[in-house]
Amino acid sequence: MSLLLTGIAELTTNDPARGDGHADRGDALLGVVRDAALVVSADGLVEWVGPADEAPDADTRRDLGGRAVIPGFVDSHTHLVFAGDRSAEFAARMTGTPYDGGGIAVSVAATRAASDDELRALVAARVAEMRAQGTTTVEIKSGYGLTLDDELRSLRIAREVTSHTTFLGAHVVPPEYASDRAAYVDLVTGPMLDAVTADGPTSLAESIDVFCEPHSAHAFDGDEARTILEAGRAAGLALRVHGNQLGPGPGVRLACELGARSVDHCTFLDDADVEALAAARGTTVATLLPGVEFSTRSPYPDGRALIDAGVDVALASDCNPGTCYSSSIPFAIALAVREMGMTPAEALHAATAVSARSLGLDRRIAPGQPAELAVIDAPSHLHLAYRAGVPIVRALDL
């Protein structure tokens, strides 16, 4: 049956044509409608959006009691298929131990040792945790298997909860290949990639990713990353890149050159990197992951400078066992506002519309769109950053 949602104090549609034009409050960017209502059809699509006093009839009605409604968060960068614990590594970083990517091997060992059912239960719990904080769409990477069978297993388990899966066999070079990196790159671009894409349009992954980081002895340099990305593109996968996390490097410009959907982290950028991202607007999104900077004591990216330069900026959690074991997009929004110079409206837009774009999605609340909604126990989206750390937003179950 169709459902009329009323009692919406503020509705963020991400459709600028619907906003009331108060750009100083972000309304123009977010397409805010106040005292709003919307109708959801029986098949889960938005059927009507507008002022509550113009709402049509529907089969059923639900009053949200003056709360704000937003598009569900799109978490476009996560590593949810893992087992084990690296809390000791976090504690060591808090006392000065730098992060260099080496701890990934600890998670690889634990994940390889876990059963399918154990991994499946862990992933399901993490996705439920995300929905409880307003996330309705999630991308999940492999990357803690690093053998042919374990990478395929990770992607199969991820596919059970999302269609947005990313092959990250090139997360780090596993210990057994430390003395022959070229052989591991050949494995990633050969047998692993062949198996991941064996089923064509219904393959196990929609994207390929690589940790391009010359500042880590465990990750991949620019030439290795190019080889991996070009092989993935030839196999029909969209491109994503971990770039410029630990220091300046080739990742950002490589992503822009190859037309990647997203380059993530972007912690250390020079003027040429920013220019490349601005020139790639509409193709390549800069996905910022402030929970990582919080968890590693790294400098925060300058989100203000990127937006002012015309770069498409997204926000995601990077939920993973090592550098950010947080599944909270509201936490990322609060950090973006407090530490990266973004306005509350820009941060919300980044965590919904722009992060969706990096997955090839359209995240608006508009007729014909899926009703992927979140509700805030407050009258405005401003409370997402204003009430940092308080669980006031959740996915809206219809």
Write the SSE topology.
Elements: E1 3-12, H1 27-30, E2 32-40, E3 46-51, E4 60-71, E5 73-75, H2 87-94, H3 104-113, H4 116-131, E6 135-138, E7 140-141, H5 148-159, E8 165-170, H6 181-196, E9 207-212, H7 222-234, E10 238-243, H8 251-258, E11 262-265, H9 271-279, E12 285-288, H10 290-296, H11 303-308, E13 313-315, H12 329-339, H13 344-357, E14 373-376, H14 383-386, E15 393-395
Parallel strand pairs: 1-4, 5-6, 7-8, 8-9, 9-10, 10-11, 11-12, 12-13
Antiparallel strand pairs: 1-2, 2-3, 4-14, 14-15
Task: Explain what you see.
The mean pLDDT is 96. The strands form three sheets. A seven-stranded parallel beta sheet has the order 7-8-9-10-11-12-13. A six-stranded mixed beta sheet has the order 3-2-1-4-14-15. The chain has helices at 27-30, 87-94, 104-113, 116-131, 148-159, 181-196, 222-234, 251-258, 271-279, 290-296, 303-308, 329-339, 344-357, 383-386, and strands at 3-12, 32-40, 46-51, 60-71, 73-75, 135-138, 140-141, 165-170, 207-212, 238-243, 262-265, 285-288, 313-315, 373-376, 393-395. It is of the alpha/beta class and 398 residues long. The chain has two domains: 3-71 and 365-395, Urease, subunit C, domain 1 (Roll); 73-357, Metal-dependent hydrolases (TIM Barrel, Alpha-Beta Barrel). Strand 8 (165-170), helix 6 and strand 9 (207-212) form a beta-alpha-beta unit. The longest helix is centred in the first third of the chain and has 16 residues, at 116-131. The termini are close together. It has 14 helices and 15 strands.
